[in-house]
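New to this. Comment on this protein:
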Amino acid sequence: MNFAQMMWRGLALGSVAGVIYIASRRTGGEPPRLIEWDRVRQAAAEFSRRDQHTMATITAETIEIYRQMVRRSEEVIGDYLKQTLPLPLSNVEAFDRQQWIDANVSNFQELFEPLESINRDALRGSTVGSYLLGNFNQLFLSNQLGFLVGYLARRVLGQYDTTLLGREPVTTGRLYFVEPNIAETQQRLSLNGHEFRMWIALHETTHAFEFEAHPWLRDYMNDLLKRYFDTVGQDLGRFTVGPAGAIGLAQRAWQNAGRSDSPLEWLMSDEQREIFQKLQALMCLLEGYSNHVMDAVGESLLATYPFMKHRFEARLQERPLGERLFNRLTGLDMKYEQYRAGERFVNAQVKAIGIERLDIVWEDPGNLPTLAEIYEPERWRERMEVANGL
């Protein structure tokens, strides 16, 4: 979401660059925040309530069923991977859409705090025109981010939340199951309710194995995100004030458009693009590994697994044109591609060397695949053979 935010911020800057001519005198008031989080919650809640045909009731029994599914998932995934978690997964919740929004807006607020600090420093002591631009950007970005969160709240089925960049130390992640979306999808695709929920539990519990059995992974992702925010902070200082800044941002977008067909990368510096591609490669691995484990375990555990997989993949292929365009503009289509590319990578490695030898990928950041290696799996095996005698 942080990358989509940069795109919308760039569009806002380009469209209102002339506003800063309004005044040149200094002002000593408190600078406007980059994002107004109450507005994000409100916009997300309003959008998420649309198209909600299933009013699922969440009871203590519902939550207990999910907790039992997670415990069962821990057992079968541990057997397959020959691993155990340091601590049992105890933070398991069934959410409605509003609860999912509240949990994730709080996470986003912590995630964006470094940018808020940079933004305050950049605007403090600026001109009245710059403050007006900041207020406009706050309104624009808050509504756009709220729209994106609300859109996701209508589609997310399950989530493993490791609370990246959180202030408090995390011992175990949290697993959320968005019951209205699960019930609605189950009914629309005519799936077995219990097995569909177990399928989702397998996927999210695998994410818990990835992070909690390998604690360095969270620190690695935090480091990438902090580095990215540092570079964004440099851009805020460079591009937020004056028509020259807006022109410079437009020039960067024009140059990058010839290098990438992804709108999200058009506003990135070379350093930002490098970090972004490392995050992409990691997300490919995380999602592909989880899908592989879900397939390997699910086929023997769930009688309707082949039917569910077929129906679910068909659903992704049949998205309306408007939704496909929206996903393209916001970068959400990258997530779907991550699932596919990462799954191909992991399946290729397991076929060649087996799931236990693939564990080398979780031993050190240097063993993680690059984005190029995700799409050419044999290159990763060759590198690991040279470096680690794989």
Summary: The radius of gyration is 22 Å. The first strand starts at residue 92 and ends at 95. DSSP finds 15 helices and three strands in the chain.
